[in-house]
């Protein structure tokens, strides 16, 4: 499998207080579609009360130009109702669900327990199979949590095994609050990828400006081939203790792979245009 870069404008946008006009979202994502990413995490079918910024996901989707792109679309859902809504759109390829292994965060994030969320995962997986879509499970708080909930690598492995039993084929380990270090990242990927070789593992890493390289390198050197990013590192989890913690900057991912001599097949000119446009969207 070749290396995959997933661009996540949805993650970059969702926490912003000021509403980004629908037309501006459409223009930005249409620009991203020209770059050649494997997938664009473009929106979310969740309650407008929970995430007001993404209340226009259906309208954004209708405005996307998918005629000349190789990128697939990924939408995030938080429950079965959202998944059912996403299933109505044939052009969406991936359905993402955040499954936290922290009981506290699962309640905060999706207003449900881990046990209830496991049932939801099974229901969404059934819908994906029926509608020819692929479920992406994000193991959120995958590298630890700030709530005092028990975390260890055995717990991570337990839930990966559970997802495997359900039939999930793509699992992204999520450093939700930017606390992962190279040792933890290395250990998890080094042990999980060989043990579950039929599963595609991804890295959704949040980072500070001075730790991005060691985090990417730890995942890369231990077999990870799927990386999430957001241009300029915009977004991230508002619960992170360090205000400098944001999404993994996509430009840093591209720099890393360039230095490794790996051609990701992306259109650098269109990427540079996207970088400029991101500033108009996010006001960087």
Summarize the structure in words.
The protein has helices at residues 9-13, 22-32, 57-62, 80-87, 103-110, 114-130, 153-166, 182-195, 212-221, 250-259, 268-282; strands spanning 4-7, 39-45, 72-77, 92-100, 134-140, 170-175, 200-207, 226-229, 246-247. The chain is α/β, with parallel strands linked by helices and 284 residues long. It has an eight-stranded parallel β-barrel, surrounded by seven helices. Strand 5, helix 7 and strand 6 form a beta-alpha-beta unit. Helix 2 packs antiparallel against helix 11 (268-282) and helix 8 runs parallel beside helix 9. The model has no long low-confidence stretch (mean pLDDT 93).
Short overview:
With 284 residues, this protein is of the alpha/beta class. Helices cover 42% and strands 19% of the residues.
Helix-strand layout with pairing:
Layout: E1 4-7, H1 9-13, H2 22-32, E2 39-45, H3 57-62, E3 72-77, H4 80-87, E4 92-100, H5 103-110, H6 114-130, E5 134-140, H7 153-166, E6 170-175, H8 182-195, E7 200-207, H9 212-221, E8 226-229, E9 246-247, H10 250-259, H11 268-282
Parallel strand pairs: 1-2, 1-8, 2-3, 3-4, 4-5, 5-6, 6-7, 7-8
Antiparallel strand pairs: 7-9
Silhouette: globular
Order of helices and strands: EHHEHEHEHHEHEHEHEEHH
Q: What is the strand content?
A: 15-25%
Our measurement of the CA-to-CA distance between the termini, rounded to an integer number of angstroms, reads: 34 Å
Name given to the CATH architecture: Alpha-Beta Barrel
Structural class: alpha/beta
Helix content: 40-55%
Taking all Cα atoms into account, the compactness measure Rg is: 17 Å
CATH class, anyone? Alpha Beta
**Largest sheet: number of strands, sense, barrel closure:** 8 strands, parallel, barrel
What is the residue-averaged pLDDT?
Answer: 93
Give, in spatial order, the strands making up the sheet with the most strands.
1-2-3-4-5-6-7-8
CATH homologous superfamily heading: Aldolase class I
Supply the number of structural domains: 1
> Count of DSSP helices?
11
Low-confidence stretches: none
């Amino acid at each position: 499998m070749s290396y995959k870069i997933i661009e996540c404008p949805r993650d970059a946008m969702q926490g912003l207080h000021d509403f980004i006009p629908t037309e501006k979202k459409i223009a930005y994502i249409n620009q991203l579609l020209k770059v050649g990413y494997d997938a664009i995490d473009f929106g979310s079918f969740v309650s407008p009360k929970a995430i007001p910024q993404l209340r226009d996901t259906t309208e954004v989707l209708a405005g996307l130009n998918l005629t000349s792109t190789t990128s697939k679309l990924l939408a995030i859902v938080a429950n079965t109702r959202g998944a059912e809504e996403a299933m109505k759109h044939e052009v969406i390829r991936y359905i993402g669900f955040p499954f936290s292994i922290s009981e506290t965060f699962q309640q905060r994030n999706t207003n449900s327990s881990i046990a209830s969320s496991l049932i939801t995962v099974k229901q969404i997986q059934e819908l994906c199979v029926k509608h020819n879509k692929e479920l992406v499970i994000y193991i959120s708080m995958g590298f630890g949590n700030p709530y005092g909930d028990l975390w260890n690598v055995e717990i991570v492995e337990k839930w990966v095994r559970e997802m495997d039993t359900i039939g999930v084929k793509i699992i992204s380990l999520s450093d939700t609050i930017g606390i992962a270090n190279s040792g933890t990242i290395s250990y998890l990927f080094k042990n999980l990828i060989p043990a579950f070789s039929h599963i595609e593992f991804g890295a959704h890493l949040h980072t500070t400006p001075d730790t991005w390289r060691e985090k990417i390198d730890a995942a890369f050197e231990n077999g990870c081939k799927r990386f999430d990013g957001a241009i300029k590192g915009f977004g991230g989890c508002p619960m992170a203790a360090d205000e400098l913690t944001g999404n993994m900057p996509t430009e840093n991912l591209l720099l890393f792979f360039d230095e490794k001599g790996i051609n990701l097949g992306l259109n650098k000119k269109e990427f540079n245009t996207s970088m400029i446009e991101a500033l108009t969207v996010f006001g960087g």
